[in-house]
Design brief:
281 residues, alpha+beta, Enolase-like, domain 1, 4-stranded antiparallel beta sheet, 26% strand, globular
Length: 281
């Protein structure tokens, strides 16, 4: 590890001061579960670490006017225990790493790292979540999560900005969701493929569909063509087969040590079918 300065804001006003004073120099650290290994490996050498891990203003889960708002500094472990969280997001949080990782890792860090296998990203994409980004000077902007990921390890964040909160509408009573993560083992596995599905049903007809996938493209992705295929139709076996075929065309998995391209394609289509069926119940 190279020499790196360290600073820890005490509250939001202190955070704003530091961001303004050190424009473009700060690298945010909260849990450090991604950043610290990258620093040890020489992949990153931050000039100044800004530690937000103890900022209560960035660690919360609450409901506000029908929306769920989660602070970016909220740990994954806290997300697993909150009654205000979405069931599919809770499912993803429970499968992220091991207890030690969940106690340290934060939601903001999991998203800002922009890994294709970010466990929380597919459920949040299916929930139509948006992120709030804070810039030096105190300005904030809202970005739909579907537009936040630009490429592998590349997001809408520019140097000096930080992600502060994640917001999504609480699903209504006609909406059901389902989430599945496939890994090579039961504990602490890195995702091979994941699917999150949310269906808003009008009787037997799908009024609205949201489908998102992880680990099968350079970024966590929405399966827009599958969504369009589902909406306005009664869901039956034939339609499910069509959805599986379309998803295979929509994703772009790679082969690596965790699985081949062909395996990922097959598994992703199968868990899509499984999650649509679960969301219908």
């Amino acid at each position: 590890m190279t020499s790196t300065e360290y600073i820890k804001p005490s509250d939001l006003s202190d955070l704003h001061r530091i961001m303004e004073e050190y424009k473009g120099r700060t690298t945010v650290i909260a849990g450090g579960t991604n950043l610290i290994p990258e620093m040890r490996n020489g992949e990153k050498a931050p000039e100044l670490l800004m530690d937000i891990s103890d900022m209560a203003e960035l660690a919360f889960i609450r409901e506000n006017n029908g929306s769920i708002v989660i602070g970016a500094g909220t740990t994954v472990a806290e997300m697993t225990a909150s009654p205000d969280n979405s069931p599919i997001l809770t499912s993803a949080a429970k499968q992220l790493g091991n207890p030690l990782t969940r106690n340290r890792a934060t939601l903001g860090g999991n998203l800002a790292n922009a890994s294709p296998c970010a466990d929380t990203a597919p459920p949040l994409l299916a929930l139509d979540a948006s992120v709030e980004i804070l810039s030096p000077g105190g300005k904030t902007r809202q970005v739909p999560l579907s537009k936040f990921f630009h490429g592998y390890k590349f997001t809408d964040l520019v140097k000096g900005e930080i992600l502060t909160r994640i917001t999504f509408a609480r699903p209504n009573d006609s909406t059901n969701g389902s989430h599945t993560k496939m890994g090579l083992r039961n504990a602490a596995s890195i995702c091979v493929a994941s699917i999150a599905v949310i269906l808003d049903m009008d009787g037997k007809t799908c009024r609205k569909a949201r489908v998102a996938a992880g680990s099968v493209a350079p970024i966590p992705m929405r399966a827009y063509r599958v969504e369009k295929l589902l909406e306005g139709k009664e869901i039956n076996a034939t339609l499910l087969d069509e959805c599986m075929a379309v998803l295979k065309e929509e994703i772009s998995p790679i082969s690596d040590i965790r699985g081949s391209l062909e395996y990922r394609s097959y598994v992703t289509a199968m868990i899509l079918k499984r999650n649509i069926k679960r969301a219908l119940k």
